[in-house]
Amino acid sequence: RRWNSSSPRLPPGSRGFPVIGESLEFFRQSPSLELFPFFKRRLERYGPIFRTNLFNQDLIVSMDQELNNLVFQQEEKLFQIWYPESFMRILGADCIIATLGSFHKHMRSLVLKLLGPENLRLVLLHDVQRATQASLLSWLDQPSIELKEATSSMIFSVTSKRLISYDSSSSDGKLWKQFDAFTRGLIAFPIYVPGTAFYKCMQGRKNVMKILTKMLDERKRASRQDSVDFLDLLLDDLKKEKLLRNEKIALDLLFLLLFAGFETTSSGITAALKFLTDDPKALQELIEEHQSIRKRRVDPDSEITWEEYKSMKFTSHVIHEALRLSNIAPVMFRKATEDVHINGYTIPKGSKIMIDPSSVHLDSTVYKDPIVFNPWRWKGTVEPVGGASKEFMAFGGEVRLCVGADFAKLQMAIFLHCLVTKYRWKAIKGGTMSLSPGLQFPGGFHIQLLPKA
Ligand code: HEM
């Protein structure tokens, strides 16, 4: 075990300028699918493990597959969850990300009542279809729509209905619009000055928390027999098990679930559509898969069944390929709880580590021609792909694997089904992907939706 020998050599690297460190370069955009230049340049110069300073924080960056795997395998042993201050201030100090051990497991089990396989099959499959069909229909009359924004609002309507019984169509305030540049605000420099992405996000958080707190207070006063949404479930847990120690924990969980899902999944859908627009052969195979599902039905317009969803093999390949290439969660963070020795370097106890998942997703020894969109490369992989593996970490590692992963994939697949069976689309403008953190589609991807010819 290489990490137990003692050699006190720190990884190489630079801290950059005082205070801002190397942040400026980190946030610079790159209009290509290749490894993001910040990482590429340092990989060439220092190798896959190096030091930097971002958001006023010394960090050890890992582009090393062995170290990445070690970090995830040793979750809550040699390494532990840690996120920068900007992140925790926006998501809340009591959110699930900040929890460990059995309490973390309890939080996950609560969330899985909403996002686990049973509820996906019995409730969300139907909800997602309805919301998708309604959205697509409403796009038909418009000269063009910005895809990420349009799908964000669609996804938010599904999630917020089951979380807090929020009705997006009749509620006046556009709750989801509270966040402009959510991802960018998360991984930002935590200075609370008007105009910054961080400031905007903090304002958004304050407004949303006010609404959620009021909702929780009202709900506590109301008498009810059954639980109708996730908020009720949290209130029951607060009362019965006393595992959720206080309301702040419940509110932070609601907040995270409302906002962790739509930014990410809408980027996934946008990436998939962008790649399909540029690849007629893949699009044709996708259309055929969905047409053949439709043809097998007694009523071609009946709802998608769970079995049909599970049979969408090529769709699943398209989704994984889009997630691999778009690296929606651009970085993940942990800290070392012990001195760790690897590749001749020492990572001292307490070091903050930034994991770059694109280093494996874009590695030519793992994926042949890594920057080519090739959904067929997933053919024959054992299902379910998209859990945690050494080669695919779009949803993180095993212990803290994204609890919304199956929900996100379901939404992407249902969207593609509804889209290609009834419509076609024309790219109007944009769609350049940038691998700068939090900036997948600067300028957006605009399409015009048309009825199928
Ligand atoms: C394509 C879409 C998505 C991507 C790429 C994604 C990515 C990730 C990643 C990489 C992590 C692990 C972070 C870490 O280990 O440090 C994570 C965790 C998490 N995700 Fe997602 N996510 C997506 C969709 C969703 C959705 C739809 C929801 C919920 C509605 C969600 C809720 C969460 C939560 C609550 C966690 C924390 C899990 C824990 O700490 O145990 N995500 N996500």
From TrEMBL:
Q: Which domain of life is it from?
A: Eukaryota
Q: Does the keyword Lipoprotein apply?
A: no
Q: Which cofactor does it need?
A: heme
Q: What is its main location?
A: membrane
Q: Does the keyword Signal apply?
A: no
Name the InterPro entries for this protein. Cyt_P450, Cyt_P450_E_grp-I, Cyt_P450_sf
Q: Which GO terms describe its molecular function?
A: heme binding; iron ion binding; monooxygenase activity; oxidoreductase activity, acting on paired donors, with incorporation or reduction of molecular oxygen
Q: Which GO terms describe its cellular component?
A: membrane
Binding, heme: C402
- Pathway, per UniProt? Hormone biosynthesis; Plant hormone biosynthesis
Where does the UniProt annotation locate this protein? Membrane
Alphabetized UniProt keyword annotations: Heme, Iron, Membrane, Metal-binding, Monooxygenase, Oxidoreductase, Transmembrane, Transmembrane helix
The GO biological-process annotations, alphabetized, read as:
brassinosteroid biosynthetic process; brassinosteroid homeostasis; sterol metabolic process
Pfam families, per database record: p450
By sequence similarity, the record places it as follows:
Belongs to the cytochrome P450 family.
What PANTHER family does the record point to? CYTOCHROME P450, CYTOCHROME P450 26
What is the name attached to this protein's record? Answer: Cytochrome P450 87A3
